[in-house]
Amino acid sequence: MTHVIPKSPISQSKVYVVKEIYAPYFDPTFHSHPEFQLNCVLEGEGSRFVGNNITSFKAMDMVLIGPHLPHVWRNENKYFEKDSTLSTRVIVVYFHKDFFGEALRLKDEMGQIDRLFQKSERGLEIIGKTKVVVSKMMRELLELDGMDGVIQLLKILNVLAKSNDYHFVTHNYLISSNTEAETTRMNKVYGHVMRNFKHTISAEEVASLINMTRTSFSRYFKARVNKSFSDFLKEIRIESACKLLKEGKMNIDQIGYECGFQTLSNFNKQFKKVIGKQPNQYRNEYQKVAAESYRYF
């Protein structure tokens, strides 16, 4: 049975909803909704899927997601083990697309926030000092209600709108209509891949999970994610490899096999194709930066 953390919809009588959610793991369902979502992970790690982008996440991952942009923060498999004592914590703010109303949104003073909303259609990863400031403001928002809360949310959006501390999350992603049947199919695909990417996975076996032929599945997946299934699987494996390289507990050979690559040469080749450098170079550069950061801490 799939574990789903309840998400209360925002009633039309409310401007926003803010929650601090504690759970053994985040809701693993790939989904979308008509509200904006500002998400700040306080505890937990895994892979973040937004549109056609896949990347790893850990504590202090902050993202602003526009309406109808599909997303999921999926914890590592160890969080789902029966005897796991791991936990997650996140602050999430939902607010309506018509937060300000059409007339107010078109006023000159609202220009920066309007542009922020437009940018969020691709997803914005918030970084740097802005992330630190906004995470504190989100914690404060949890303690507020009524007009005090609305004013605090306006202040948060104003900080985000004025800042350049962000990266776009998706590239060339077109939001398509997401029916319940399509969401169910994509969740079966994502779930199967995340549970089994360390082993050989064929397009045929995934296609059979959602009652499609291999050819139909390939077309369907490419249309939904803007990349081939093989590229998607490769990126999942490389993201996992990057995390293990940063941890520094395994040698390069072990990491390649652990992440589903059958030979070291193929691991090196695919890693360089995605990341732009060899695994050992990636690890050495990360360790150097980490050592410098520690020295100045």
Q: How would you sum up this structure, described in words?
A:
The structure is a single chain. This protein is an alpha+beta fold. It is 46% helix and 16% strand. It contains eleven helices and nine strands. The strands form two sheets. A six-stranded antiparallel sheet has the order 1-7-2-5-8-9, covered by helices on one side. Helix 2 crosses helix 4, helix 6 (203-209) crosses helix 7 (214-225) and helix 8 packs across helix 11.
Second rung of CATH, namely the architecture of the largest domain? Sandwich
The number of helical elements comes to 11
Radius of gyration: 20 Å
The largest beta-sheet arranges its strands as 1-7-2-5-8-9
Number of strands: 9
First-last Cα distance: 45 Å
The unreliable regions are 1-8
Order of helices and strands: EEEEEEEHHEHHEHHHHHHH
What CATH calls the topology of the largest domain is Jelly Rolls
CATH evolutionary superfamily of the largest domain: Jelly Rolls
InterPro entries: Homeodomain-like_sf, HTH_AraC, RmlC-like_jellyroll, RmlC_Cupin_sf, Tscrpt_reg_AraC-type_HTH
Keywords: DNA-binding, Transcription, Transcription regulation
Domain HTH araC/xylS-type: 187-285
Protein name: AraC family transcriptional regulator
